[in-house]
Amino acid sequence: MDKKEDLKVKSGGKPKIIDNSCGCLIDEFIIENSPNERLCSVQEADFEVFIDPDVEKVSNQFYMKKETDGLPIIPPTQSRVNKFLKYTDLKPDEVIAILPPKRGTATVEKIAINSVMAGCLPTFMPVIQHTIKAVSHEKFNLPAINATTHPIAICTILNGPISHEIGINSNMGCLGPGNIANATIGRALRLCMINIAGAVPGIGDHATMGSPAKYSYCFGEAEDESPWESLHVDRGSNANESTITVIAAEAPHNVNDHRSKTAEDILDTIIHTAAVAGCNNSHVPGEILIIMGPEHAKTVYEDGWGKYDVKRYIHENTSVPVKLGDRGGRKMDKESITGGEVKLTRKPEDVVLVVAGGPGRHSMVAHGFGKSSESVTMPLKLEDGISLFTLEDLKK
Amino acid sequence: MNIKIKEREVLNPLAEKDAIKIKLNPLPQKKRVIALLDNTKPNADLILHTIQENLKSSKFVHIKKPAGDSATSEQIKQATKADLVILALGDCGSCTTWLILDALKLEKKGTPTISVCSHVFSPFARELAESYGANSLRIMEIEHPLAGQSEESVKTKTQNIINQMNKILD
């Protein structure tokens, strides 16, 4: 029986819908003198053309539901999300972490959706996925970081070859605008905190004022400019491995020193910028992030200082009077007090020292969350535990 | 020919909640030992001392835990020896978080708790408890602010919740 006859038999001489999907058969189209004037008698249209949603409309819809950081978003369509899913070896429904305070399930797909919204490129997916895993580490204390009245942000530092592959900025303006990786990886992390963790400002995030650093806070270490071993090597990785480090940090404070010619003088300027009352380190000493500009680092290094010497000097000399330091929310432990002073760090290793930035004689100091949060460095790895040396490994 | 233009759908960025349930413990008939768990927030000690003065109990144990961070396992272990634990103070985001999470640790170990949170942070405390499957966790609201206030003011605010606490405990 040919197709024309088949159609007539089933429809009793009058073409009707047999197909169980849209109801439209190609036979209807090819039958001569078909009683249907339209190609399909069920669908209200013969052809459907799909277009991307209007960015302004979707941004406003998401904003009204408190699902953004206030800035416009890229609409997270399935096709866009699929591009991100090509840069992970995990399944979309695989759970990376359970994030507080809402105990939201951070699946690969949800991370990808929020990364699309942030304006990320698909190649950033492995970095963001590992960043989410890293902040969920118990010692990072995400329950407190997300909910606190303190303006603490989450700073992500990239090391290794993948940071170059995705084009992260570690040089001039690395903490400012102008680079898509720096601008959107931190933003993706923030959107994940809002939409997955439930750290919605005023609901799950209780920051008294918050901080501009909560929009995006991500940069790479300028490993080629550093005279010392880089952060990830410091923490046990090989130089050719790629890592992400998350550290709870305030927005950075500049250290302008154009005149010092010795290591000690530069470090003293850094120390006097760091030694302030009113930060968490002043009553519960913990980690502090020092982002040293390459020109400062060169002077310090050429004066014969190793990286640990720098960390030890900053640790030993950055202190505030107890009377001023012990005004924070959590009572200072007595063992933090030495001779009426409190050091802002517990040990030299608490000084998290990286080199980044471009030409100019500036460095940066970012106080931490005190002893209530420890930074986490995590190598980028595939599911089977093999290091992800290049994004090409994901295509194998 | 009829051509329809459709917008592509957008995916939902919100996560599913990881549903868990924590069984809460009834208040004991006999409250021979009450542990007062002080997270060292300003005036938490004063609130707990004022509560102690107004409650009838044979024995009180004072334990300190860090604000904004988990109690140590030793501090939790010490607290579980009591018949009831009263925790103070939740008056900011991180300290409220860890006050509630520590209360939940105690409840999971079979020790009933009452958490004292300022009225500004009590809604968040309840939402957090709900996220962890403990919808009826006992949370008492004390008037915000408590930090930077005079001793008299803090005592007055504490007195205001003691009647309610007595009712719960009786």
CATH class call of chain B:
Alpha Beta
Architecture (CATH level 2) name of chain B: 3-Layer(aba) Sandwich
Shape of chain A: globular
Distance between the termini of chain A: 48 Å
Provide mean pLDDT of chain B, rounded. 96
CATH fold-type name of chain B = Rossmann fold
Strand order of the largest sheet of chain B: 3-2-4-5-6
Shape summary of chain B? elongated
> How widely separated are the two ends of chain B?
78 Å
Quickly give the structural class of chain A: alpha+beta
Low-pLDDT stretches of chain B: none
Q: Mind explaining what this structure looks like?
A:
The complex is a heterodimer of chains A (396) and B (170). Chain A is α+β, with helices and mostly antiparallel strands. Helix content of chain A is 31%, strand content 16%. Chain A has 14 helices and 14 strands. Chain A has helices spanning 3-11, 26-30, 55-64, 78-85, 108-118, 125-135, 142-147, 161-165, 180-197, 231-234, 263-274, 294-302, 307-317, 322-325, and strands spanning 47-51, 95-99, 104-107, 153-159, 218-220, 243-249, 253-256, 288-292, 319-321, 337-338, 341-343, 351-355, 362-367, 376-379. Chain A has a four-stranded mixed sheet. In chain A, strands 7-13-8-12 form a four-stranded mixed sheet. Chain A has a three-stranded antiparallel sheet with strand order 9-11-10. In chain A, a hairpin with a 4-residue loop joins strand 2 and strand 3. Chain B has 170 residues and is an alpha/beta fold. Chain B has a single domain, classed as Rossmann fold, CATH 3.40.50. Helix content of chain B is 37%, strand content 20%. A five-stranded parallel sheet of chain B has the order 3-2-4-5-6, with helices on both faces. In chain B, helix 1 crosses helix 5 (151-169) and helix 3 crosses helix 4. In chain B, 44% of the residues are buried. The interface between A and B is large, with 63 and 43 residues.
